[in-house]
């Protein structure tokens, strides 16, 4: 006879039909949203945006617009999340909206660039931050100049890269052992990060000696900035800078990937999306206002042009000295650690769902017999993210993945219109706010961002397109294999 506590535990651990266990409540769901968004971008991206725009007011405008657009996307996506709650999130949504082919290309894009590059980039910032505290070993200049294809230098900053891969391995193993472990890490780290950012805002606005005049003072070289020299003038410069801001906001839809492990998902996911994205938008506006309040924009541009510097560290160093710089370095370590963990936790479920449909490596559909996690999908994700660590710079990777992500963000928001036609009578616990106007605005913005990115950042954009369509031969192979299996079973 089973012990009473065992019966209670089994009753509380409701299983999804896929074999995954439902353990995530509202608070944890909100922390997954927060930790998926608050990573490295909020500490780094104000510097390249300042260099590009040369105006503090325009920089803050970009952060505000990016937050508003992200909120529109989450409000729209929340209706779909309340309608369909399955492991794989956006992949499953696309399968219902447009069919398996389109869903496959989304999932493949996550694997090839969107999510894997995100994990590689954020983990790399973690290693860079640690390197600023305690320099990691490097190879000789001759070995570092060894290249692949003339533009990849895998041996450069080898100590940083090996630490990055070690972090990815550690967090993959944590999530391998169960969603409870991964979500617990998210809760602890996210709470600490938000509290630390609030402290920085309070100190920066009270004792830093900064000035509101810094917010209204343009750079000395404003007239020759990207605002005036880009192909599309002010509009092009703003959209280019918003790509940087969107990197910091990206990740708001990662919670949907965990649909099979969320308690009462049709209520919890929409509510967590709205709370999480609104909170992050407020935090980002306040912290970036603080950066520019403390540091005049000419100094911020100098930070951008100094190798191996992080804007947030230099701002805090300005008014708290070396101790403050050390403290903010630790905060960045916490934030990037938590963000990588949330991404690994959530996005492995996409490949798990694809494999269950026969559109990914078959082993990725494996559920661990003890830990009830998509164990093989986690390992595959780790391997490819580690490969990406040895290619591309941080900014190239982030610009490339944001371009690819917004293709699918737009398609996802348009799917609200599609599902209203396909599933008119299905119960919707949450209906998109401002339908059809606000979802339409978000879709049009996504189209505009993709078009301007192709003009302003053609190399990163076309590389993103290449990686999206690199899955084409795999799609036909897996589709053919699935057809052969069905034929043989008849």
Automatic annotation (TrEMBL):
Domain of life of the native organism: Bacteria
Annotated localization: Membrane
Spans through the membrane: 20-38, 58-84, 105-127, 158-176, 188-212, 232-249, 269-294, 325-352, 373-394, 400-420, 432-455, 461-478
Primary location group: membrane
Position of the signal peptide: none
Keywords, comma-separated and alphabetical: Membrane, Transmembrane, Transmembrane helix
InterPro entries found in the cross-reference section: AA/rel_permease1, AminoAcid_Transporter
Membrane topology: Multi-pass membrane protein
Pfam family, one: AA_permease_2
Gene3D superfamilies documented for this protein: Amino acid/polyamine transporter I
The keyword Hydrolase belongs to this UniProt entry's keyword annotation: no
Name recorded for this polypeptide: Amino acid permease
Origin species: Rhodocytophaga aerolata
Native organism taxonomy: Bacteria, Pseudomonadati, Bacteroidota, Cytophagia, Cytophagales
């Amino acid at each position: 006879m089973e012990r009473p506590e065992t019966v209670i535990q089994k009753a509380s651990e409701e299983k999804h039909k896929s074999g995954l266990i439902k353990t995530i409540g509202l608070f944890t769901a909100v922390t997954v949203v927060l930790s998926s968004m608050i990573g490295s971008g909020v500490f780094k991206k104000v510097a390249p945006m300042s260099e590009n725009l040369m105006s503090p007011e325009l920089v803050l405008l970009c952060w505000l617009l990016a937050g508003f657009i992200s909120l529109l996307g989450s409000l729209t996506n929340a209706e779909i999340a309340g309608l369909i709650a399955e492991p794989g999130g956006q992949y499953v949504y696309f399968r219902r909206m447009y069919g398996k082919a389109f869903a496959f290309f989304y999932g493949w894009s996550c694997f090839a660039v969107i999510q894997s590059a995100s994990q590689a980039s954020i983990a790399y910032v973690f290693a860079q931050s640690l390197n600023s505290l305690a320099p990691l070993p490097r190879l000789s200049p001759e070995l570092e100049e060894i290249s692949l294809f003339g533009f990849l230098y895998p041996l450069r900053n080898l100590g940083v890269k090996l630490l990055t891969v070690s972090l990815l391995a550690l967090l993959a193993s944590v999530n391998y052992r169960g969603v409870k472990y991964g979500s617990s890490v998210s809760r602890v780290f996210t709470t600490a990060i938000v509290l630390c950012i609030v402290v920085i805002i309070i100190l920066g606005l009270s004792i830093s000696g900064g000035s509101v005049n810094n917010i209204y003072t343009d750079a000395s070289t404003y007239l020759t900035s990207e605002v005036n020299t880009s192909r599309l003038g002010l509009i092009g410069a703003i959209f280019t800078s918003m790509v940087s801001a969107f990197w910091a906001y990206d990740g708001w839809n990662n919670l949907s990937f965990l649909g099979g492990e969320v308690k009462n998902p049709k209520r919890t996911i929409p509510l967590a999306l709205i709370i999480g994205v609104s909170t992050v938008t407020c935090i980002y506006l306040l912290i970036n206002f603080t950066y520019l309040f403390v540091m005049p924009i000419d100094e911020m541009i100098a930070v951008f042009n100094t190798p191996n510097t992080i804007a947030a560290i230099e701002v805090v160093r300005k008014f708290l000295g070396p101790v403050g710089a050390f403290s903010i370095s630790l905060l960045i370590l916490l934030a990037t650690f938590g963000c990588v963990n949330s991404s690994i936790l959530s996005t492995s479920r996409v490949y798990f769902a694809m494999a269950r449909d026969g559109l990914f490596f078959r082993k990725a559909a494996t559920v661990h017999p003890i830990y009830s996690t998509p164990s093989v999908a986690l390992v595959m994700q780790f391997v490819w993210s580690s490969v990406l660590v040895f290619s591309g710079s941080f900014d190239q990777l982030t610009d490339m993945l944001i371009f690819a992500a917004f293709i699918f963000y737009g398609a996802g928001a348009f799917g609200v219109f599609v599902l209203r036609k396909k599933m008119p009578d299905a119960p919707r616990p949450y209906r998109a706010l401002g339908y059809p106007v606000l979802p339409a605005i978000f879709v049009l913005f996504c189209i505009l961002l993709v078009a301007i990115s192709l003009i302003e950042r053609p190399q990163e954009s076309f590389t993103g397109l290449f990686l999206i369509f690199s899955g084409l031969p795999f799609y036909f192979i897996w589709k053919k294999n699935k057809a052969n299996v069905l034929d043989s079973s008849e």
